[in-house]
Amino acid sequence: MENNTIEIAYQVFSSMEELPQDDRRLMEKAQEASLSAYAIYSRFRVGAAVLLSNGKVVLGNNQENVSYTEGLCAERVALFSAMAQYPQEQVKSIAIYGNPMNYTLNSAVTPCGACRQVLMECEQRGKSNIRILCGGTTGEILAIESVKHLLPFHFNM
Ligand code: THU
After folding, report:
1. Beta bridge pairs of residue 96
2. Cα-Cα-Cα-Cα dihedral of 20, 22, 27, 33, to 10°?
3. 17 is annotated as an active-site residue
4. Residue 44: CB within 6 Å of ligand 1?
5. Rounded to the nearest 10 degrees, how much is the dihedral formed by the CA atoms of 36, 37, 42, 44?
């Protein structure tokens, strides 16, 4: 028997203004996408912007349903839409922006477990790391260089 530890690496930016220009642009698109979220049940809007290897940006936002479990997160809406439209392209980065309707979120929204699994598949499919940018209405922005940091021991067959 041996005891092992896994470390994960990520960067912290103090605000949107501190982000490199390309990241900032992508986060602004995610912010814009959050405004059209259909989040009438949770009132927790999330926007996502996916940058592809051909330079296209595909947007997504959370889509809720009266049958709650049928709703879908912003990240998966954006990723599946991107892969449906541009199946040959690689996903280079994704920006995620949490924008609740009733309060100011002062921390970054990070992808849920299911979205991490889908991100992992996109990373493997494209054979290229996906940079993940996570933000909230205000506060710090997190940047993670690869889905591998977010999902150790991910499912695989
Ligand atoms: N949600 C996302 O869209 N992305 C996340 O990373 C976390 C949660 C959505 C799902 C649901 O519509 C609402 O936020 C509240 O959980």
Report:
1. 48, 134
2. 170
3. no
4. yes
5. -80
